[in-house]
Amino acid sequence: MLKINEKRISDSYTSSIHSIYVPNYGSFDVLFEKHITGETDWIVIQQRVDGIENFVRDWNTYVAGFGSFEGDFFLGLEKIHRLTYSTRYQLKIRMKHFNGTIRYADYDHFKVDGKKTDYTLSSLGEFSGDEDAELWRGDNLRWHEGLKFSTFDNENDLWNKECAQIHKGGWWYNHCTASNLNGEFSVTDGSKFAQMYWADYLPLKNVQMMIRKYKPL
Fold first, then answer.
1. DSSP string covering 92-116, please?
2. Which pTM does this prediction carry?
3. Distance CA 172, CA 146 (A)
């Protein structure tokens, strides 16, 4: 389960913890981020900042959520599902490389189905964000759209091998990945397939996945 220690939250990454109510589900704590975006309504659903938390977790742990709001965490598939089914949400992904480069990927209709479909990533909507055909393929979550979530003990990918075990995390694996944001942290000399990356197996230093209620341009 997620641990909360509000006094130790770093201003470099996060803002504040508040309870949020979702109809037909109840209330739970979420982390609102404003330091990076300058806006107060982004809910952080996944965060990788220090590599302390192990993301090679079983199915039930990914469903419930794990980690700490003060560092690495995953909010939990059930909570993400309940939020994104309660109204339309958009997704922002912030990624920092080891050379200091920061990239963004945005989707305007992010939706995760419930447990009956193994938390399928059912919608992303339109993509916007950084795109460079030579160095950076921005829309790298698209290949995972329509796929069920997989963990090492509940493989739902489309490959004849086990993507979650090879890529060391839980994700909406296809056969297998165009992105792997729940992979191993800071792997620069191990398997390139297992590390945390978005494009071309380039390891990432920091990641935040954030959602907020949809705001049309």
1. EEEEEETTS-EEEEEEEEEEE--GG
2. 0.89
3. 8
Give domain 6-139+202-213's CATH superfamily.
Gamma Fibrinogen, chain A, domain 1 (3.90.215.10)
Inter-residue contact 119 to 111 (CB < 8 Å): no
Taking only the tens place, the pLDDT of each residue in 16-42 is 888 999 989 999 999 998 766 666 689
Give the C-alpha separation, 100 to 97, whole Å. 5
Query: Residue ranges per domain, the chain?
Result: 6-139+202-213
Rg (CA), the chain: 16
Asked if the model's pLDDT at residue 117 lies above 60, the reply is yes
Handedness of CA 191, 124, 49, 66 (dihedral sign): negative
Do residues 57 and 63 lie in contact, with contact meaning Cβ atoms separated by under 8 Å? no
Length of the chain measured in residues: 217
